[in-house]
Amino acid sequence: MIYREAGDFKTSYRDDGQTFPIRLDRWGYYALLGVAFLVVPFVIDSYWANAVLVPFLIYAIAAIGLNILTGYAGQVSLGTGGFMAVGAYSVYKLMTAFPGVPIFVHILLAGAITAVVGMLFGLPSLRIKGFYLAVATLAAQFFLVWLFNKVPWFYNYSASGQINAPERTVFGWAVTGPATSAPAKYLTCLVFAVVLAWIARNLTRGMVGRKWMAIRDMDIAAEIIGVNPLTAKLSAFAVSSFFVGIAGALLFSVYLGAAEASEAFGINKSFLVLFMIIIGGLGSIFGSFAGAAFLVLLPVLLKNLLVVRLGWPTDLAAHLELMIVGGLIIFFLIVEPHGLARLWRLTKEKLRLWPFPH
Amino acid sequence: MEFLYASEVLVNGLMAGVMYSLVALGFVLIYKASGVFNYAQGVMALFAAMTLVGIMEGRVPFAHLINAAFGVHVDRFGWTVPAIFGIALTALIMVGLAIAVEKLVLKHLVGQEPIILFMATIGLAWFLEGLGDVMWGADVKVLDVGLPQGISDSIETATNNWLGYGFFIDRLDIWATVIAAALVAALVGFSQYTKQGRAMRAVADDHQAALSVGISLRFIWIMVWSIAGFVALVAGIMWGTKSGVQFSLSLIALKALPVLMLGGFTSIPGAIVGGLIIGMGEKLFEYFIGPMVGGATENWFAYVLALLFLVFRPQGLFGERIIERV
Prior knowledge:
Structural class of chain B: mainly alpha
Mean pLDDT of chain B: 81
Order of helices and strands of chain A: HHHHHHEEEHHHHEHHHHH
Distance between the termini of chain B: 58 Å
Radius of gyration of chain B: 21 Å
Number of helices of chain A: 15
Shape of chain B: globular
Mean pLDDT of chain A: 86
Strand content of chain A: under 5%
Largest interface: A-B, 50 and 52 residues
Helix content of chain A: over 70%
Strand content of chain B: under 5%
Oligomer: heterodimer
Strand order of the largest sheet of chain A: 1-4
Shape of chain A: globular
């Protein structure tokens, strides 16, 4: 039948914990992956890649990272921009210091370096909580950006203070540098996004994820039932920063190609990613993708509507966008604190029973 | 000589600290009365300053939007408003804003977790920032309400005669200190000696108990947000006069956050002392350590200081002790 199971016949935890218990969902997911990998790269042009798909995938990775920390482990962070900068500058230093090593290894290493930095700034979370911690993570944001602006070693003493991605190839295709084609950019980000989302999904439904959620729901109670807050919180910071670092590395090396710390990784980037997970849904992998898609598409739509159609000035469109995003955040927090992911889940529940609701 | 120069840096730091305290005051008021950590306080200061400039210069609100939507060219009404009326009108607008926030946002979020409320105020901050820009334009505005500015000559000559070294102190900073002191005195007087002030303290102590003796929570919240709006207006006038009304104002105002963490979220004296410590600390750090590491340490010093401090004393200097129960 369409979109339903034939009763609840689950006999093992494995069946019960499936990501896609409904066959139609599973097929839809495979079909989506098939289209993303086999069809889109052949039809994508540089407008779609640069304006929509590549930023969507990169921000989705960052949003998954922040969602692990905020949505699953309950530690609000406003330092995402700073951690993305760590990923970007690490990948830049690695790329220029070891040109022979494949770029994928560099990006993963950049994630690992960010994870270490993230754990360092996560240490105070053992003492302070809630918005005290949120403000404390602002220290990471401002300090890291300042560091990358002020210490010339990080940008290889370049005169402009910018970092520029040199060209690196994978199987003969350029994936970084100015000569990169749209499909190559897209596929690189897609591979990372799919693999990381798969890892995140499996981490969060396993033991580690349950520990995080126990800490989120009530840390003292979690401690009493035997969850070690030190390892749980620091592992959340490490995994989250790993994801965010990879997103930063991709943003700089594949998408932007050149970056300057305070402009590309300022405080607004931190808020943007936070808004993505609020709108998408706290504590949901799907929500991270939905939120990223929403906030990447919104400016594109507004620009097309206001600037291209109506001929309004771009700065006015940008200010209206601020108002709309701010208003939407409040709206979502009031009406649906679990975001788009919850709406999607409700739709699915309804669909399962339709047309016989009882 | 070295010592005298360092003490001049110190005095200027203290003055800058007063400015941080002004913003921090608004945070404390709202936090005490409603438990909301109002991230938008800084943007409220920016919005108030923008509105004040807009009214005083007789700008047409939403001129940008009207021009774009209807293809006309309106910009100014052609009159200017004296500062005193401008301030009164802006204060009224801030009260309107407080009522709107209560009716449209807070009312619907009663009983949510504090962190959700915090994120809602981040959304409010973005909304207000966009609204300010759409209403009055995003250009850097000059705000002049008639406060004296520039280096104070009398202090320079006095210290020169007395110590042999002239202190450079901005007259605006001196005025800011005086106004901040007056504001704190007025607030303390209000909360100690008036009926509404007592009601406000009762709400801060215990929502349930306050409700049961017939205090209207919603009225108190509107009042507190209005007062916070007025404090934001004062802070906006000070900062705006000092460095022009522009977006970076809301970033400077962000520094009120580490000030609060240092002083404790629930204490008005804490906001003042925290502001002084941060202002003094960052100027001295910049003076002694800054040249060694390339300068501009003011960007992060306050946050890192607060972070390190919190590790040892999570409730801040004067905050109420945090007690957690399962």
